[in-house]
């Protein structure tokens, strides 16, 4: 079954939300610029680029990605013109963001490169959609295919597509993967643990929803869903706040609480994990939150980043970066129309060896 590309419209199964976002373009005076703070550099908003700006902040905070991109010999970047090569321009932009400059990092070439690859400037974009597109461009345009696959594995959640006939107990299964987990939300209060558990909950299909069983030769009641095989070093979670009904898209401002540290082993039950599961370490730390402010038809993206150097939170709003507290990040849980709400969450796996080194 291979890759699940998630290209359908919002509200239809395992899909990306397609909404109309990012309507503010800022033009700050020099006095608004913040100096480089703990390795974080702001990014000017060019052509409604706050969606891409927020994603770049999360990529810059993903040191695993930086290390792999920096291994790539760009002198051999393939036949594609350098101005059209997304991974090349991403590498250059992230290197600039890591440099010692005090002004906002230049990233116009990366934005123009995305524009040439049909992620247009002066158009409103969905952050999860752009995130997945960039990862796909890396896979398609990087000359070093082995390195491109390593980058993909940073985010690859392996799952088992599971279908069991409830009459004869015959099971059909196949391995697939997702690069971000699209978690549907309820109208009321949510917790990340509940929505994650629900995503892997097997559903019973009866009556009109029965599935054809190859062994029985007819439609039968069944259990269907996804079971977890393996979590990657970085888990990207997409909180599906945009819902389409009868051609109308609305934003769910529902509250979604999420922890700084999560142990997925305590979240999932035995039936939600595949018998072929490969996981040994289940604890993850939150290190980036992509935030959306506004409605389904207009809005603005920012990012909260937890810097590895001092273990503190920072808020990046285009060219402006300032230190933040966890209490400020918690406001993005939502629950009120006036609040910016968390839209994407990035968790990094806690490696036991590193944890022992720190404690020692």
UniProtKB/TrEMBL annotation:
Q: USP domain location, by residue?
A: 41-350
Pfam name, any one: UCH
Could you provide one GO biological process annotation from this protein's UniProt record? protein deubiquitination
What would you give as a GO molecular function for this chain, any one? Answer: cysteine-type deubiquitinase activity
Gene Ontology CC: cytosol; nucleus
Q: Which InterPro entries match?
A: Papain-like_cys_pep_sf, Peptidase_C19, Peptidase_C19_UCH, USP, USP_CS
Q: What is this protein called?
A: USP domain-containing protein
Originating species? Megalops atlanticus (Tarpon)
């Amino acid at each position: 079954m291979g890759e699940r590309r998630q290209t359908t419209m919002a509200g239809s199964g395992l899909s990306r939300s397609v909404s109309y976002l990012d309507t503010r373009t800022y033009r700050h005076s020099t006095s608004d610029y913040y100096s480089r703070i703990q390795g974080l550099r702001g990014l000017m908003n060019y052509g409604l680029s706050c969606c891409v700006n927020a994603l770049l902040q999360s990529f810059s905070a993903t040191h695993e990605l930086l290390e792999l991109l920096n291994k790539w010999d760009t002198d051999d970047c393939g036949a594609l013109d350098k101005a059209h090569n997304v991974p090349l321009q991403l590498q250059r932009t992230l290197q600039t963001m890591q440099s010692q400059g005090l002004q906002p990092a230049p990233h116009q070439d990366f934005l123009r490169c995305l524009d040439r690859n049909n992620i247009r400037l002066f158009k409103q974009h969905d952050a999860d959609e752009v995130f997945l597109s960039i990862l796909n461009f890396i896979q398609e345009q990087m000359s070093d295919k082995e390195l491109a696959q390593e980058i993909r594995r940073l985010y690859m959640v392996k799952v088992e597509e599971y279908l069991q006939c409830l009459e004869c107990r015959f099971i059909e299964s196949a391995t697939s993967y997702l690069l971000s987990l699209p978690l549907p939300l309820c109208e009321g209060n949510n917790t990340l643990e509940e929505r994650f558990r629900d995503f892997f909950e097997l559903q019973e299909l009866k009556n009109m929803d029965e599935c054809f069983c190859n062994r029985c030769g007819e439609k039968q009641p069944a259990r269907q869903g996804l079971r977890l095989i393996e979590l990657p070093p970085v888990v990207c979670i997409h909180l599906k706040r945009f819902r389409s009904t009868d051609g109308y898209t609305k934003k769910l401002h529902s509250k979604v609480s999420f922890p700084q540290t999560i142990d997925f082993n305590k979240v999932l039950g035995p039936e939600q994990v595949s018998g072929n599961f490969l996981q040994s370490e289940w604890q993850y730390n939150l290190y980036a939150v992509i935030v959306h402010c506004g409605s389904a038809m207009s809005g603005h993206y920012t990012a909260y980043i937890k810097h590895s150097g001092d273990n503190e939170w920072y808020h990046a709003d285009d060219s402006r970066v300032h230190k933040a507290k966890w209490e400020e990040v918690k406001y993005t849980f939502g629950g009120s129309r006036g609040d910016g709400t968390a839209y994407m969450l990035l968790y990094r796996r806690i490696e036991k060896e590193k944890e022992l080194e720190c404690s020692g």
